[in-house]
Structure formats: structure tokens, C-alpha cells
Amino acid sequence: MTLTADPSTAAQAAPRGSARRTSLIAGALYLLTFIASIPALALYGPVLDDPGYVLGPGPDAGILWGGFLELVTALACIGTAIVLFPILRRQNETTALGFVASRTLEAATIVVGVVTLLAVVTLRQDLAGATGGEATSLVVTAEALVAVHTWTFLLGPGFMAGVNALLLGSLLLRSRLVPRVIPALGLVGAPLLLASSTATLFGAYSQLSVWSAIATIPIFLWELSLGLWLVVKGFTPSPLTAGTGDAGTPPPTAPPRIAEPA
Fold first, then answer.
1. What is the CA radius of gyration of the chain?
2. Element (H or E) spanning 4, and its range?
């Protein structure tokens, strides 16, 4: 007699993915959005704050690095949704797919903002030394491009971040993959951020106002705490992670079959 492994058991013993690896990658990508986006805003300072930047000598290096960091942020945004989707879909596939779509839309909005500021750099380089009416039109064009970036910042990291928090927060709260206080932060912060972004949209106050900053705090804490928890602790053992290699929920095993003698 010979012993042969049950094919279904072999598939369970060699799962296609690891829940711990998934949480680590997703958490690292969330933290990367902080690491890349915060210095990008500082690097954009010259072009955002000086209407005459397009007529001056630069510098351009800071703007280019800021654009690069925002591209990294956009890719990390999409990455968080893609990495989490295989697990979140087990809770609610429609909501999980909505999270992927909204996160992708946020990233696309960020990229549009990057393109507008890089266009200002191109104008400065190609039309250096412009005078008179040409210089005036150049400044007006540059200010329009900066205005587009301002709106993309409101609608992308602002408005869409609130939508993302509603979708992901609801999934994590129901699935209990992380402590409930973490998605609760997102679900509390999302309406505040959406309301603040809407108020800014209709001119109630500026994006850099005290009220806007206060409304952003819960979402900031939500994404930061989620990223840190996923990196340090990972998912709480759950039926959603069964079969994904989670050490807390080992896949079931079956005894080997006894093959009939030939």
C-alpha cells in the first residue's frame, strides 16, 4: 500500500497568499502615503506661493521632486486598495470594489495636480525672459494651472479621502480585522472631512483655515493608526483570513488517503 496526499489538502497546506504579508504590505503602503505626501507640499512652496515664479530663475528641482513624491503617493494609494481587496471582498465584494474604485479616483486626481505644476515648470523653462504682455499672459496661465492643482487637492486628498474612509471603515468595523476603535476613527472623521470639503467648495472658508485643519485630524489619525497597526500587529485572526496563511487561523487538514493496492 502507498500513501497519497489528498489534492484538496495539498491546496490548503500551500495557500496562495499570506494574511500577515498582506497586512504588512498594506500598512507599509499607507505609511508611504504619509512619508511621500507631506514633504511634497513643502517642496511645492515656491510655485504655490509666488505668482511670479514662472518668470523667475526657479528653482525647479524642488517642484520636480515634489511631483515625483506625489506620484509615489498616488501609486501607494492604489496599492493599498489592491492589496486589501482579496480579503475585504470576503466581507462585502461590492463595497470592497467601491473602495478600489474610489482610491483609484483619488490617485488619478493627485496625478492631474502633479501635471499642472510640472506644466508651470515647463512654461518657466521654455519662456524664460518673457516681457510685457507675454509675461502677463504667462503669469495668468501659471496662476490658472496652480488653481487647478488647488482644486485637485481639495477633491482628491480632501473629498475622496472621506469617501475612502466610509467604505474601508465600514468593512473593517464589520469584519473586526483590526481593533474597532481604528475604523471608528475613520467613520467619525469621514463625515467631518466631507462636510469640510463641501464647505470649502462653496466658499465658506479656505483649505488652509482652522476649521479645515480640525476636520482633517480624525482622518489623519485613522490612516496613520491603520498603517501602524497593520505593520506591527497585522490582522486579527478571522474567518476572512482563513486559508490565506494567517498563523492565527491555520487551514484545516485531513488525514492522508490510503491508496488501494494495484
1. 24
2. strand 3-4
